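Can anyone check this?
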Amino acid sequence: MPDTTATLKFLAKSKRYDTEKPYVIVSAASGPEIRDADKTNTESESRDGILLKDVRGREKEFKLEDQGFQVLKHASEFPRLDTIEQCDGYQKETTKLLKNIFGATCKRRVVEYEKGATWNYHDPRETDGPAVMAHVDHTLQSGITVVDMYLSADEKTEYLNGDYRIRLLNIWRPMVPVIKHQPLALCDVRTTRPGQFVACDRILCERLGEVYLMQYHEAQEWYWLENQTPQEPFMFLTWDSESNGQARYCPHLSFKNEYAGANAPPRESVETRSIVITRRGTND
């Protein structure tokens, strides 16, 4: 199994964050111009020689409730997402996939709340480019905000009564035959500690979000899937309403693959973000 090493980026440790909350301004193309120096107060640090263990051949060892991620075996009917119809079809396909994964016998609801494509990679600060700093998409608090934002009033009445488990899940799929350039790496959340995550405001034109930025610790264990294909998407947690000792989120990032080769095609991928609701106590 070809494990590899890579340089990974983390939030730098700084006393500044004791008194000043980190922030990142994600400015839209149509919004006001913001100087680069004002877009963030975060500082990153690069750590060289981080071991990335390959999960190929061991896929069944990785589970959502343990490490926080797993590899799916699923061939999409939509190899390209060039039209609105294709995007809508892919979204419906993802909903069906998640319902199948979490069982037809349990009460479940899937709400697709965001979908993003990462095409040709240029500037890591671009909103549609791969995120190169270790992070989690939601904090324990902002996950609640997302649920409140996207569920209807009737759904809140039905599902926010303590009888249901709510998870925010991402499915990340390559859109090229084999991902070589800027593949995804994921961290086994069991090898992390709460103090390694710093809440960071993510400021958009239309709303305020909050993510975790991750600081480095030598005990962290990172994984990737070498030569990942579109038929091998990652599914990983970004928030879980349950706090029963299982994984509640999964740190991840995109990294530069030094062995990709000069002719490796630019990264193309699609990532869906979904709210998955299941009845508590079911085999989910």
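Reply from J.R.: I decoded it. The first helix runs from residue 16 to 19.
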